[in-house]
Structure formats: structure tokens, C-alpha cells
User: Fold Parvalbumin beta from Latimeria chalumnae.
Amino acid sequence: AVAKLLAAADVTAALEGCKADDSFNHKVFFQKTGLAKKSNEELEAIFKILDQDKSGFIEDEELELFLQNFSAGARTLTKTETETFLKAGDSDGDGKIGVDEFQKLVKA
Assistant:
């Protein structure tokens, strides 16, 4: 669903760059996919897709499945990748990423 908002070639390249376990780097991924150039409104729409349980936050279970939002056949993130991703985005320390935190993380 997220892939519809991005160029297919960019998504493919970004996913290729993190096929191996523990190779995911959110900053690189956001740059390669073009997410880093999206407006806050576009990022909010993407956030709502990533927030699969519609809680208003992206929790670790949803982060683990992050890549699959871009391609159904993509791998899940490892525990280490998920923890690193969460730590990078969770600026208030509540153990989850809100929409404002997500926007800041993507644009960082």
C-alpha cells in the first residue's frame, strides 16, 4: 500500500539494499525510497498505513513488519533492527512511535 505513494524503482532499490538480516538502515531506506522528500501530510498518510492496528502509534510489532508494507515478499526486520529503529524514532521514550515522531525520523 505504501509503495503506491513512491516510485516502484526506488522501492525496489531500497529493498534490495537491505535484503540481508541486520542490513536495514532507516536513514538509507528513507532516502532511497524518496520518503525523506515527502511532505508531512504524505508522511501522515504513510504512517496510517504502517499503524496497522490503528492505535495512533507504530509499535515494535508493526516495525518488525515495516518492509512488508513496501513489498509483500519482503523480509521482517530482525529484533536488533526493530529495536534500533524504535529507539531512533521514539523521542519521548514511551516505547512506540507517534506520527510527529515518525515525521521527524523520516526527515532527520
User: Anything to note?
Assistant: The first strand starts at residue 57 and ends at 58.
